[in-house]
Amino acid sequence: MFRIAHISDPHISRQFYREHIKSLKMLLRSIVDMGIDHIVISGDIVSTGHEDDYYLAREIFSKLGLLDTKRLTVVPGNHDIFGGPHRAVDVLSFPQHIRGVDYVRNKNMFVQAFAETFQGVRRLAGRAFFPFVKEIGPFRFLGLNSVPPWSLRYNPLGTNGFVNQEQFSALESIVPELQDDEFVNTIICHHHFNDLIREEDVPSNNFWKKVESKTMRMKKRKKLLRLFSEMNARYVLHGHIHRNEVYERNGILFANGAGAICDDPVRYLKYNVLEHDDGFCSIRICQLPIVYQESMVSMALHRNRKPLHIPMPAMGGVE
Ligand SMILES: [Fe+2]
Known about the structure:
Strand order of the largest sheet: 4-5-6-7-8-10-9
Bound molecules: fe (ii) ion
Radius of gyration: 21 Å
CATH class: Alpha Beta
Shape: globular
CATH topology: Purple Acid Phosphatase, chain A, domain 2
Number of domains: 1
Distance between the termini: 66 Å
């Protein structure tokens, strides 16, 4: 049996999310102790894009013996490159801040920070780091960078997804060799392929759908889905929207791992496990009996919350 654990969006930050650091350490420790063969993290490893948080992530992975191409595979998310607004006050300044972000520098910083995990990968687009191919046990990973540069029109908040033409052509060029059944083709990228806001949830109001399509979408996803089918892809592992779920598109199973340590309605540490056993493959969400670690602020708020007291009416005949 060969098992892959998939998580996403740990958003670690010494400045803003110390509780995420605790949660990530606990989750990775549990995964390692269970003897899982390999771990995939599909982006937003750090929340700020700062060097300090990259050092911290390296330290966490290194202490668990994960800074190794055979043990860990990573791709970038929008926070790894652009950071994000973390306090209410940042919401106003972020649109200005993002224009000054050096996209190429930060993308390279991501690759350098986790350089050991890219050792031995096959790059498909010349000197570009993405897309890459990595064979791990029975799985063939195709790692993409779905974070495009900032653009006022197409990516105003840095949160949209897009796989550029260079990566697209590189993937097209290896379609013939992906048709063997020797490996299970598994795509790894940051952005999602399902609708964040479903028609049945907001039947008469298209406003939020429009907001989503402007700021949170994987662009040209139908074209990409067709390519994934041609690539004989069995699984797509991604993150971005903070919840864990498994869904199907075009006969391919998609797994979102972004509720691993925060924000999922089920507030327990969790991961997706992709299992290969005697030629059969399965994917499922595994939940640990450990709740998300809380921030000092949230703990303080809970401490001050008094239990609701409802006076019961006196019962007749009972003294
Ligand atoms: Fe993200």
